[in-house]
Amino acid sequence: MLSAFTGTADGYYTYTMSECVYSASDYSDMVYLLSYSFNKVVDVQYNSSVGECVGYTEVGVKIAESFNKNQAYVQQAKASVDTYCRPNAQVLDSSVRDKTVKPMITLRSARQADGSRPAVLMCSAYEFYPKKIKVSWLRDGKEMTSDVTSTMEMADGDWFYQIHSHLEYTPKSGEKISCMVEHASFSKPMITDWDPSFPEGERNKIAI
């Protein structure tokens, strides 16, 4: 929650911001923060884990002392963990935390083997949620750990993520190369096989 008041034409700007910070699914580590700022500088902040206001500027120290003497204010701020943070977190988490979106997986050739250099395959996963995902490579059903490079999960800026993994390998007759993706949206790993027998224009494979 953000509330703001703009003063004179000289650009004075004061605002308050309420934050609920947590990571545990049962909200046991919930912390309520209430900050008062002036021209982008935090003057004073209430922190529920501290139990009182703390001043960060000369003026803020005086304001914090005044707030801390007001027990009604302190008790109300302390109660905000239960009256404000937890109820809102429960509503928002029910809409986001337990939701999953299956990734769109593509497997394509990034480079053909030419005698002096090995071939490179790229396996990509797009538009998935939540962030945690595992992309691995299989040769005839066995995981390959060497000559594999992968990006970190990259945020698209719209709640979704993407990731890319490259495999350098020397093709062998009769072998089967596969990309395996494990994600919360799948009941079992999604395995996409590479088929080099396809014509060049048909080699990109997409799995949803």
TrEMBL record:
Name a single GO biological process: immune response
Keyword flag Membrane: yes
GO CC annotation: what is one?
A: MHC class II protein complex
Quick check: keyword Transmembrane in the entry? yes
InterPro entries for the chain: Ig-like_dom, Ig-like_dom_sf, Ig-like_fold, Ig_C1-set, MHC/Immunoglobulin, MHC_I/II-like_Ag-recog, MHC_II_a/b_N, MHC_II_b_N
Occurrences of domain Ig-like (ranges): 103-192
Query: Its topology with respect to the membrane?
Result: Single-pass type I membrane protein
Write the record's keywords in alphabetical order, separated by commas: Disulfide bond, Glycoprotein, Membrane, Transmembrane, Transmembrane helix
Q: Which Pfam families match?
A: C1-set, MHC_II_beta
Q: Where in the cell is it found?
A: Membrane
Q: What is this protein called?
A: MHC class II beta chain
Q: Which gene encodes it?
A: Cyca-DAB3
